[in-house]
Design goal:
Layout lengths: L1 H18 L6 H18 L1 H13 L12 H16 L7 H21 L5 H16 L6
Length: about 140
């Protein structure tokens, strides 16, 4: 079962990686990351649903999962990079990254069971929220 999850994550990571990293700004890079994640969800609803079902029942052999997942870590690092340059406001980068990740996961869960769900529309709303949250009010 873990091979199914690993395979989809690898495919998703490859596709998402193809469109990220080409922005001139950290906030633009975050927007691209959000959009590419939810575009993948929109384009692969059956695969995402299958992986969500498998992943929900997977338990690591050494106990419950802990720590930061790779997507949350990437988002947090981008936010911190923007804060270091003054592009992004001083917010708790870990909390915002976790919030973004939870929103992406919730959109994926909804798309998995609701054929009328709109992951791309969700992405645009989330991008707006993130832009507003990170808009620096004064230069550093």
């Amino acid at each position: 079962m873990s091979e199914v999850v690993t395979s989809l994550y690898r495919e998703a990571g490859w596709q998402i990686g193809q469109v990220t990293g080409d922005s001139d700004s950290v906030i633009g890079e975050l927007a691209t990351c959000i959009r590419s994640n939810l575009t993948f969800v929109a384009d692969h609803p059956r695969h995402v649903r299958a992986v969500m079902e498998v992943a929900a029942n997977m338990r690591p052999a050494d106990g419950p999962p802990g720590g930061e997942d790779p997507l949350s870590a990437h988002l947090r690092e981008l936010i911190e990079r923007g804060q270091a340059t003054g592009e992004a406001a001083d917010v708790d980068a870990g909390v915002l990254a976790m919030t973004m990740r939870a929103s992406i996961d919730a959109a994926a869960a909804r798309a998995a069971c609701d054929p009328t769900a709109d992951p791309r529309g969700h992405a645009e709303h989330l991008v707006t929220i993130v832009r507003r949250a990170l808009q620096a009010t004064e230069p550093r």
